[in-house]
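Contributing new records

If you add data, match the layout below exactly. Sequence lines come first and carry their own label; structure lines follow with theirs. Keep one chain per record. Anything else will be rejected by the validation script.
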Amino acid sequence: IVKLSHASMFHDLEIIDRPELLELREESDYSSNNISEQDKKLVSRHALNSSLFMQDLPDLPLGVESIIIQHHGSPRGIGFVDKINPAKLSKLTLVFIIAESFVHTLLLSRKLKNLSYLHKKQHENQKISYIMSKIEKEYTSNQYREIITALKESF
């Protein structure tokens, strides 16, 4: 839990003050959001740069930098990976990827913003079901099954 807490606080440190960049989830988002070349480079390297910053922190739990570097599926921390190969990532990184996907969908998804009536008219479980079905469609490999099942059971 300590490792995941540290990773969640610092993984997007490099772009934290740029909400429009925080919404980018894959390279195809660059063209649809009119992103400059300088911002593309910043986003592509933010995982690596955030992990490098973390190395200077005293008492950093072993493995946190690895979670941060790999949080977009790239073992090197540069760019996005269209098809993540979960076999190349640590189990904690996979947990982090699923958790981040859940939170990102909850907070930033344009479709959820359009479904804001759910807050008032329908039960909270319907939002959770919507998010979980989206995650299950995106993360289909066996390495994710146990993590997704555990997340579903927590609700």
